[in-house]
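job 3f2a | input accepted
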Amino acid sequence: MQDTYKIKWMSCASCAHHIEKSLGKMPGVESCEVNFATETAKVVFDETKTDFDAMKKVVDPLGYQLVQNSNSKVQSSEWKMQHENHIMPDWTMMSGEDHSMHTGLNQSKEEKLKELQSMKQKIFIVMPFVVLSFIYMILDIGWQRKLLPMMSEWLYELFHHLFPLLATYVLFVIGKQYIIALRRFIKTGVATMETLIGLGTVVGFVYSFIVTAFEWPLAPYLDTSIHYYDVVIVVIGFIYYGKYLETRSKLQTGEAIEKLLNLQAKTAIVERDGHEQEISIDQVRHDDIVIIKPWSKIPVDGIIMSGMSSIDESMITGESMPVDKKEWDKVIGWTMNKQWFMKIKATSLGSDSMLAHIITMVQDAQWSKAPIQKLADQISAVFVPIV
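job 3f2a | predicted structure (387 res):
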């Protein structure tokens, strides 16, 4: 069987390669493909030999988190609690997605927005430090090349005491994730892009701190005026800004799918036992007679049983002119009825509907890779360990 899982805390294509390699070695796993852009893993496995819990035990110790998606066929009790239909106190039915939102369980997008806002605040703090460090670097080159007059004593002392404080904040607050990545590398031997950044900045910071703290004893042996606090600030600052842009772009990755999902009608008017009743779209059954009023959205795919009208199908075909429909013609769910009253028989629901197929095709397109992207992933898998 095949399932798709969400993976948190990946930082680069090398992370995706390590997860693919680890899951691919598991007994019962036939194939595994990890998409860094969408932060998901598509796994084909024998459910008699392995399951989600076993895969989670392999992935989580590497420093990542494997999360079960709502479309996973193997459903844990926690997933069922979040996504199955729920009967409310008034005996009405609430869909799993609505219930999870109601109870605060569906927090993925909110968490990403919160993470993005936190990163944005840190960017506003660290970028002035980066600009100051960058200016200092340019001035330092000018001083060494004797293109600029040497700085005054008070300015030298200011930089001498200011940069250690700024670098300490940047490394241990802004760059905390890179220190964690370095610690994870020591523990598991898994090297990623964050490992390189952590190793380089920590070594630069420690060397600079030793030179600063033991300036007089080391003066006969080293040029103690040379430090790398500015390098630590600039490297972490620019990399963190890149991560901010990456996080923002990932948040926009599912925008097309989200817009498609927003086209879905929430309720439908059906004819049951000779009476009209408005129910949730999740409660519509196959062959139900659905009543479509003028200028209302068609909630499901179906066949016109009575009436005729003009249907705006531009969301599917892109054609701006409405299409005339009569009895026994097919209509597509979530298109707009532009004229008359109709009754249709529901024929395709849920994953069988036209819109669901479109959403599936968009998701499949996100998984596809150009040959150059596959080559880049292969290079990145060996680039990090070599460096």
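job 3f2a | Residues 71-107 have pLDDT under 50 and may be disordered.
job 3f2a | closed
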